[in-house]
Amino acid sequence: xxxxxxxxxxxxxxGNMRTxxxxxxxxxxxxxxxxxxxxxxxxxxxxxxxxNGYWQIAPQEKMISRSRRYRGETLVLETLFxxxxxxxxxxxxxxxxxxxxxxVDLMRVIEGREGRVTMECNALFRxxxxxxxPLLREDRHGVSAIAGPDxxxxxxxARIRCDDDTLRSTFEVAAGxxxxxxxxxxxxxxxxxxxxxxxxxxDEVERWWSDWSGRCEIDEAFREPVVRSLxxxxxxxxxxxxxxxxxxxxSLPESLGGELNWDYRYTWLRDATFTLYALLASGYRxxxxxxxxxxxxVAAGEPGKLQPIYGIAGERRIDEHRLDWxxxxxGSRPVRIGNGAYRQVQLDIxxxxxxxxxxxxxxxxxxxxxxxxxxYRLVKYVEAHWQQPGAGLWELRGPQQHYTHSKVxxxxxxxxxxxxxxxxxxxxxxxxxxxxxxxxxxxxxTHGFNRARNSFVQHYDSDELDASLLLLPLVGFLSATDxxxxxxxxxxxxxxxxxxxxxxxxxDTQRHDLAEDEGAFLVCCFWLVDVLLLxxxxxxxxxxxxxxxxxxxxxxxLAEEYHPxxxxxxxxxxxxxxxxxxxxxxxxxxxxxxxxxxxxxxxAD
Length: 605
Known about the structure:
By secondary structure, this protein is an alpha+beta fold.
């Protein structure tokens, strides 16, 4: 990439389990949606330029150095600037919402550390993803920005003035001094709320995250990456509805300058189920209960109509649109919001849901009769539809296929239902389910395994590989030491890896060079780590795991993909699926050290 281009790894992330913001190394806020993750952005410079909305606070004079960190095991981001005049920190965080509070706050505290530094605050807010110019109202208490249903209120003891559409403030901060700024979203038809005590809110937020992180159950050797990943996953979970978004961003490119730009600010049943494993394995049970209740509401009376993607509160329609006024991240267009994949038939999701609910039972989460009724109907749906083609795990927008992974997850759905009857005394037609389970298993082994290339393949009647085949031993379909699995893993390592990083599959443009198109898919790399552990290839697994830790940015965050040639992160950020893979692999190392089976495969017991 060009030296002036943006880099996904340059961004930090803050949030309050309702929404999130992305902030670059210069303490410039370039992405902010309020009041929800999937609301229209009021700062969208990330996908365009500063005319689409931003908020920067930085020294007025030339900087000598800058650095950043999260303050302990929290989601409070601190950026430290050094100038000839002194040192100053910009501390960014979002207070946690109150149940009866419709407002959403983002707070920034400028703290003098040494000397006396002159600071500048420049903010331009644009509603509607950078397209709508708000009405600005300035008074002695701050500035309001209003457009349609949305209003923002920017408050600070430092004077804020309107300079055309830009809000500006210049002030000095000396060692030991703190100057707070609070940005509050509220409904435009309501009166702007009074600002909360920013310094008190900072103390409360740090204490809450520290207490939550302190409950993490993981070996000390893996604590740092696991806790950072769990904080990220928690922050991507809506505290009110229980839905888990795939990422905080939309339309960050999967290929450099390409068109694979999707909106991930929604809840994928598959991703949420993987997140459930990570949270349960780490000792977090309340989140598992909240997700189960969210699922029950989503499934309602027709579990057979499950969608792969929902809105955060379970909304079924998330229609896809293009925002033509945005130039895209490094010119990667089109910029898309919404996600049309919600209309796809993805037959694997029923197995993921059944597996996740089985996992919660294995962890002694309180049983729920309504959930078993949902699961019973899911199995009946699988029984009637497992032989149909679908879109598959990767949501490909071409012809539907009989994807091997989807068939395997149909097997998982039936297998977990059987275990519900056998292990927990639930009611079901166990003999019929056992026959169905065997039928699906034989069908996959007959049609999903290509004898000519001695490997399982992406879909029936093909010779193409797919990294999702790494999941076959992890869900208990076959042993990791089965010769067919060993041959498949060898083929994937030979044909779908570049410098050890695993690609999902080889597209038409990647036949001669994997790195020609999108990057390696990070969660697939963690799946390979897990399979290598099952095969007792621990040194090889640890080498790959350490390599994956090295591609995190300086704050410990991962995007969806990594480009091993360009040495950059790609895709939406931070990506829940990637952090889930990290957490689960770390637990699998811990379990392997204790001579146990990895957590994911243990769900098949």
